[in-house]
Write a structure and sequence with these properties.
By secondary structure, the chain is of the alpha+beta class. The chain has 3 domains: about 5-95, Phosphorylase Kinase, domain 1, CATH 3.30.200.20; about 95-270, Orthogonal Bundle (Transferase(Phosphotransferase), domain 1), CATH 1.10.510.10; about 270-470, no CATH class. It is about 35% helix and about 25% strand. The chain contains 11 helices and 22 strands. Strand 1 (about 5) and strand 2 (about 10-20) form a beta hairpin. The radius of gyration is 32 Å and the shape is elongated.
């Protein structure tokens, strides 16, 4: 039976927000403060499950402890006796606005810019929840639980399914909403990355208008790519958020937020453990002799090898085409110069002469650049005593730096060079690695992808452990 009138001589019911057989949600006015609040009630009838009460009780306990601007604050909780039975009620801040679900149902489709703003807001909330001691996992992030306020802020509501995280192997009760639940939650297991899957599925719904349950294929994969008109970067970011295998998702809300802010998709940093990444095919492994090995890194025109493996060949090809084209023009021009001068000695040849010089310089420059780009290399050598970095062009070594093995010798990622575009996207122009030995360090540039960088650093660590153990 719907509640009516004034509750506890304090809460005046104004409008029904949601109702079913046992649960009611009301917009009410707190007579003591004259503020609007949300009043939720659970009726204890014959069909009421004890688990329903546990969800209500858990939400009260959680909201009492939390203090975050975009999480509704707990106001009150009490038992209410009515002629038809007992109700358990909780009161919290009312957030004026619409849920993300209501926006989509009204035909609104989120732009990429606004979708990213929503994602960042919820990730901030998840960082707060997951950083509690112990961490808290929401377990039921979905469109109806995200409220876009009239002030254009995003709130996370409904903490009834929240669970204290007690370790990756601990079993919990199954909670969540089909389509937005990650696979591990069906088995009663939830980790911080589980909330990331739910958020990713929610964002896909917001931008496509299609429920995730209608996009499921090949197990738990969400095939949404052809349903959304967003940048390749954002598609990849969303793919990483909704990876069925928890190990392949972003490891934390902070990592997901960093990737979104920087627009540098760090998929390989958390895609697989380094030891499971295969050796890059383009790296040349050289076995010199016993206990000495080299890794030669050939040049590459592309910093995204996985998406554009043939970029180097195209660059070299175009360099040769340009050199041949301008070389041909230069030869024709010089031939014309000789012919004209022979037939008409008094003809003014200044422009032909200048054209011959310019085209010749362009041809030689393009040819030299394509050859240099193809012949520039980096090589790392490992033996019992040291690690060496060699860099050169063609058959000539230009730089060599050696670092003796000890516990502090390391190969690390150094500062990246970026191109920043008007839409705030960032493209990596060149990665740098740093070989450290004590207080000395050598920073060198390499044309490698993030995946190749991780493999190389892991390979280095294995060799360091091997050689330092043998020397001891």
């Amino acid at each position: 039976m719907p509640l009516t009138g004034e509750i506890q001589s304090r809460y005046l019911l104004i409008d029904s927000l949601a109702q079913n057989a046992e649960r009611q949600t009301w917009l009410a006015e707190d007579r003591h403060t004259s503020q609007r609040v949300t009043l939720k009630s659970l009726y204890f009838g014959r069909s009421t499950q004890w688990q329903d009460f546990k969800y209500f009780e858990r939400e009260v306990e959680t909201l009492q402890k939390l203090d975050y601007p975009r999480i509704p604050k707990h106001r009150d909780a009490f038992w209410l006796e009515q002629p038809e039975g007992h109700y358990f009620c909780l009161v919290q801040d009312f957030i004026p606005g619409l849920s993300l679900s209501e926006f989509v149902q009204k035909g609104y489709r989120f732009s990429e810019e606004r979708l990213e703003a929503v994602a960042k807001s919820i990730l901030d909330i998840l960082i707060y929840l997951h950083s509690q001691e112990p961490p808290l996992i929401h377990r039921d992030i979905k469109p109806s639980n995200l409220i876009l306020s009239e002030a254009d802020e995003v709130y996370l509501i409904d903490f009834g399914a929240i669970q204290v995280y007690s370790g990756p192997e601990k079993s919990m009760t199954v909670a969540g909403t089909f389509g937005y639940m990650p696979p591990e939650q069906f088995g009663g297991r939830a980790v911080p990355a589980s909330d990331l899957y739910s958020l990713g599925a929610t964002l896909i719904y917001a931008i496509s208008g299609v429920k995730p349950s209608e996009l499921v294929a090949d197990g738990f994969y969400l095939r949404f790519q052809n349903r959304v008109g967003v940048s390749t970067y954002l598609k990849e970011w969303l793919e990483h958020m909704v990876e069925p295998e928890v190990e392949k998702r972003f490891s934390s809300a902070l990592e997901a937020l960093d990737a979104l802010k920087l627009r540098e998709f760090k998929r390989y940093e958390s895609l697989l453990p380094p030891e499971k990444i295969d050796a890059p095919e383009r790296f040349l492994v050289i076995d010199y002799e016993k206990d000495k090995i080299g890794i030669e890194i050939p040049p590459s025109a592309s910093l995204d090898k996985d998406n554009d493996p043939d970029a180097l060949q195209r660059l070299a090809c175009w360099g040769r085409v340009i050199s041949y084209l301008f070389g041909g023009v230069s030869v024709i021009n010089w031939g014309a110069l000789v012919l004209i001068f022979t037939l008409i000695p008094t003809y003014p040849l200044q422009w032909n002469f200048l054209c011959g010089i310019v085209t010749g310089v362009i041809a030689l420059s393009a040819y030299a650049l394509s050859n240099w780009r193809l012949s520039h290399w980096t090589r790392l050598e490992f033996d019992r005593n040291q690690c060496s970095v060699l860099q050169g062009v063609g058959g000539k070594t230009r730089h060599r730096w050696k670092a003796p093995w000890d516990a502090n010798t390391s190969l690390e990622s150094a500062t990246d060079s970026y191109d920043i575009f008007p839409n705030d996207s960032i493209r990596i122009r060149g990665r740098k690695l740093c070989l450290k030995s004590g207080k000395d360090e050598y920073i060198f540039s390499t044309d490698i992808s993030k995946k190749e960088e991780i493999w190389l650093i892991n390979f280095f660590q294995k060799k360091r452990e091997k050689f330092t153990q043998e020397s001891n």
